[in-house]
Amino acid sequence: LIGFIDDYIKVFMKNKKGLAARFKILGQVALGIFVAATLFLSDDVIVREHVQTSAGADLQHIVVDPESGEQEVKFVTEDVKSTKTTIPFVKRNEFDYAWLVAFAGNAASWLKWVVYALAIILIITAVSNAANLTDGLDGLATGTSAISGATLGVLAYVSGNIIYADYLNIMYIPNAGELTVFVAAFIGATVGFLWYNSYPAQVFMGDTGSLALGGILAVFSVIIRKEILIPLLCGIFLIENLSVVIQVVWFKYTKRKYGEGRRVFLMSPIHHHYQKKGLHEAKIVARFWIVGIILAVLTVVTLKVR
User: Fold this and answer.
1) What residue ranges do the domains of the chain occupy?
2) Of 149, 178, 286, 302, which has the maximum CB count within 10 A?
3) What global pTM score does this model have?
4) How many CB atoms lie within 10 A of CB 29?
């Protein structure tokens, strides 16, 4: 909706500036608040955790097979509302936003949701804007979004399958596997659009499409508790965003210090830098896709690496 309003102002109202940046940010913040409120209020948004003893150990019980009489030790679990998420390279691959407010005592029970909401707002705003910046070459944002979407679909499936979640020792999210249907539709839409958006493009998505792509990827990652993996999975978006930040900050700093602005890149976002270096647009996009695939594989690998 934000992107549509922006494009409408540019195309039909002949205003090249489009929607003011503050209104874009306000809309993204509103979306973040809505998503956070849904996660907090909906009884269907839960994760399955191991019940722990007062000493912090996982509670276990013995299950006896009625037919064979064999005994098996299993963990005691419960479905709860939680602010936990997935983070690689640590025990259980889990991080709890509540840890950030552990000092708050009794207030931590609600303050953790405030911190979680702020994190969601930051992620949605950052990823949607980064996707918008990436949409500067034919097929670049569309292709990288399809790659990231497919990876999130894999993560959703294994997170929603109790066997795979137990094998990988990751957070089990009941019914998360159902989201693969949405991912399939997302991939179909992006690949179908890419057919006409690849170089030389016949159609363009504008802010309506690019902001939506980033927003969908961000919200989906939050739902399946994989938002901290976004900087790795959507590394192309991150690099594009950082290139703009670095360019602007360095230009302003050197202008204040030396009286004239200097640039780190020939042009930002960074895909335009490579254009200025003489690389063909199609080659730049293909190489960015390759990097995106490598980052997607690394993201999946983090589930097993400790």
Assistant:
1) 2-46+81-301
2) 149
3) 0.86
4) 15
